[in-house]
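JOB MANIFEST
job_type = single_chain_structure
chain_count = 1
residues = 394
[input]
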Amino acid sequence: MAARTLVRVSGRTWWLSFRTRDTVPIPTPARAATSAIVATAESPRSSVGVREPGADSVERVVCWFHEEEAAVPTNGPGTTSTGAPSVIVCGEALIDLTPDLDRPDRFTAHPGGGPFNSAIALGRLGVPTGFCSRVSTDGFGAQLRGRLASAAVGFDQIVDTADPTTLAVVTLNDAREASYSFYVEGTADRGLTVDDLPPELPASVQVLHFGTLSLVLEPGASAYEHLMQREHGHRLLALDPNCRPVLIPDRDAYRIRLEGWVRLMDLVKVSAADLEWLYPERTPAEVAAAWQLLGAALVVVTDGGRGATGYRGPDVVTVPTPTVEVADTIGAGDTYNAGLIAWILDRDRSTRAALTELGSDELQELLRFAARCAAITCSRPGADPPWRDELMVG
């Protein structure tokens, strides 16, 4: 099954159909009202470009693709749907106030939030994605919507509200690892209720992803828990707890609730730092084994620069972290989530049965792909995930 992907050319964003393992003759170039996609096959890589009306030259980038569709610009606010989503990401959308490395007293506002970043990363990786949240109509909310639109993430599951946008103040340590403090009282995303949830999801949705603040702050946490319970067994469920201890007053109560969510999940990605906080007396391998007994088909533990380990039944696979010059780690774990989901969809592994049948080689390929996605995010400031063409060039 081919999946649609986004390709950036001449600073604009276009849909193409994408499948890494297909190299086939290219059909007649697709045409839009004001421009045309021009493509030539050079197996296994191809060159794709945009020809503006009246122009003699074509600006090209290198990418991999299966075939062309009608080119559809997706830049900027106003794009509210990409059509039928394969993934819906559920959770908070907030603004990260990130310090300027040269002027620590100056902060820049960046759209963020764990699930929000994962949705952006999935959209940039070419996965038809929707976002389920409650988003403010204030200026920051407009910024969030613009960011979603730029990655062709759909708005159909977003609830509008006049409540203000949540703020996260970022602190970077000497290793440029991020920590956060939050302004969350009375804010937009945490106010989601069960009544705000869509009564049913599009039949196209194969994966639901949950995580981070949205599973801590009420009433939103209970609303998303209700959605997990409702959709369990109907589509693949994925979770990244992405713990924020500053917002969790009772670790034991949170851990009990988290284990209830794990029972409903097919895929769980968790950081070694989160496991150390949640289970200080247990090793990651012990926790992964316990979570599989609870119900998770695949558990992935990330450990920053030390790599990541996947646990699937008897198979345990560890892959190293790619070497990059780290700008900061903001959004790295969120991008890793997107890489896992994108690979699963690309390989038609988006069922629980398919996940349980992954062999060691496939598991290693999965982890390496997710690690590459996250490494690119770490190489530049802020949560700035890669586009699909960045992973395919070179």
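[summary]
Confidence is low (pLDDT under 50) at residues 1-82.
The chain has ten helices and 18 strands.
exit_status = 0
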